[in-house]
């Protein structure tokens, strides 16, 4: 592969800890969470294909945290 680059400019300033960029050949574990107001939220954890099976606990923890946050 050759070299690639991209230039991106965000017109809205934000703290750097709110922004992340990842590039690669990734796959995701997808799930949903239903809020107390019955809104369905899509959840997705991205990782290398061989690590997708290792994300089950992370998804469980994410959903538990979201549930706790709503209580």
From TrEMBL:
GO terms for cellular component: chloroplast. One of its GO terms (molecular function) is zinc ion binding. This is Peptidase M1 membrane alanine aminopeptidase domain-containing protein. It comes from Nymphaea colorata (pocket water lily).
């Amino acid at each position: 592969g050759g070299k690639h680059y991209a230039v991106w400019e965000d017109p809205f300033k934000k703290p750097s800890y709110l922004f992340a960029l990842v590039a690669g050949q990734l796959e995701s574990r997808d799930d949903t969470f239903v809020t107390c107001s019955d809104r369905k939220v899509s959840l997705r954890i991205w990782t290398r294909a061989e690590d997708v099976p290792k994300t089950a606990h992370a998804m469980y923890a994410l959903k538990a945290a979201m549930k706790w946050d709503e209580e």
